[in-house]
């Protein structure tokens, strides 16, 4: 029986022989990590066994390079990976640590079985409840919150979740609400943001979910992002960088001249509406920017050139000046999320 896939996505990996960092398609299995040069490749470029490995996060070995974690194997080999942002790194680290722990205990990797562990009634449909919570008009409101000189975008507090469950008569009291909220968290529908809620998930609190105004959470497929506040009032950003970050992550982008495809890290901002793209292997300055005000974005089935990346999950942005950009997401869901986010920003941002 083949090992189950736990997580996959683009990460930047440091080469084992040369001091070079390159984006790779990384797949976490129950017993190993495989990495591929491209998502469409059939065989991995390399494989890292998890048995006996140790994980270090954050890894500060590379100065300005942020969101790095290190995996050291039993053969004294160190592997370094870099995520696009903090929450992405933390999600990889949590799953890798759990996979290693399951191997040590002779267990199969599984998300927490909330129905058994906290006796969740069979009548509760967590997927349907999650969709109701995300409803733009009647759901839990996503906010911009500040704590400890950090700005948390598109998140909400633990007590707001319990208040919402009570207001919709989904639960009878706060204790029952805490049980349901913990189930949503354990099943991955909700994610912790900030030290207080993350420590609770790691087991330093009585419950994994906190009914607390200082405990922050976000929807798993939202545009959540945490950024540091700057105390330097003299820092003046270019106009296009002043917008709030709505969404970020890695996508494949087609070049305009050679028509080849490369992995790029994208950051979507609103007001003003810009989509900046960067070399995910390093560099603080963007390689380019797409002004989104008045643009059109649609899903497409193929690109009008011969150098294809594989025709899955493509979408096109046509700017107000009629410049065409072709991008490729890793999954249909990710493509839909990017299209919706860009459509909103294109209408509301200047």
From TrEMBL:
Domain PH per the UniProt entry, residue ranges: 4-101, 244-347
GO molecular function: phosphatase activator activity; phosphatidylinositol-3,4-bisphosphate binding; protein homodimerization activity; protein kinase C binding
GO term, biological process aspect, one: hematopoietic progenitor cell differentiation
InterPro entries: DEP_dom (IPR000591), PH-like_dom_sf (IPR011993), PH_domain (IPR001849), Pleckstrin (IPR037370), WH-like_DNA-bd_sf (IPR036388), WH_DNA-bd_sf (IPR036390)
Pfam families, sorted: DEP, PH
CDD domains named in the record: PH1_Pleckstrin_2, PH2_Pleckstrin_2
Keyword Acetylation among UniProt keywords: yes
Protein name: Pleckstrin
Organism classification: Eukaryota, Metazoa, Chordata, Craniata, Vertebrata
């Amino acid at each position: 029986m083949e090992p189950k896939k736990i997580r996959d996505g683009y990460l930047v990996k440091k080469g084992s022989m040369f001091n070079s960092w390159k984006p790779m398609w990384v797949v976490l299995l129950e017993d190993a990590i495989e990495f591929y040069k491209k998502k469409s490749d059939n065989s991995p470029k390399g494989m890292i066994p998890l048995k006996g490995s140790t994980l270090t996060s954050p890894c500060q070995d590379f100065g300005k390079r942020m969101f790095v974690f290190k995996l050291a194997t039993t053969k004294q080999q160190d592997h370094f990976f870099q995520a696009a942002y903090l929450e992405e790194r933390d999600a990889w680290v949590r799953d890798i640590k759990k996979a290693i722990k399951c191997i040590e205990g002779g267990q199969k990797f599984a998300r927490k079985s909330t129905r058994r562990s906290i006796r969740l009634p069979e009548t509760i449909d967590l997927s349907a409840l999650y969709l109701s919570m995300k409803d733009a008009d009647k759901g839990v409101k996503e906010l911009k919150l500040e704590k400890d000189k950090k700005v948390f975008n598109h998140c909400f507090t633990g007590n707001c979740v319990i208040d919402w469950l009570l207001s919709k008569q989904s639960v009878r009291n706060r204790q029952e609400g805490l049980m349901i909220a913990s189930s949503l968290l354990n099943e991955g529908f909700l994610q912790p943001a900030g030290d207080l809620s993350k420590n609770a998930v790691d087991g330093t609190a009585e419950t994994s979910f906190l009914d607390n105004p200082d405990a922050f959470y976000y929807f798993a497929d939202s545009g959540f992002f945490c950024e540091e506040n700057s105390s330097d009032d003299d820092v003046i950003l270019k106009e296009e960088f002043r917008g709030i970050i709505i969404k970020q992550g890695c996508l494949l982008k087609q070049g305009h001249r050679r028509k080849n495809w490369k992995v790029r890290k994208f950051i979507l901002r609103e007001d003003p509406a810009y989509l900046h793209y960067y070399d995910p292997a390093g560099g603080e300055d963007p390689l380019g920017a797409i002004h989104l005000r008045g643009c059109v974005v649609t899903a497409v089935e193929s690109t009008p050139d011969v150098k294809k990346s594989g025709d899955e999950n493509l979408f096109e942005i046509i700017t107000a000046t009629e410049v065409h950009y072709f991008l490729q997401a890793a999954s249909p869901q990710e493509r839909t999320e990017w299209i919706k986010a860009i459509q909103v920003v294109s209408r509301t941002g200047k």
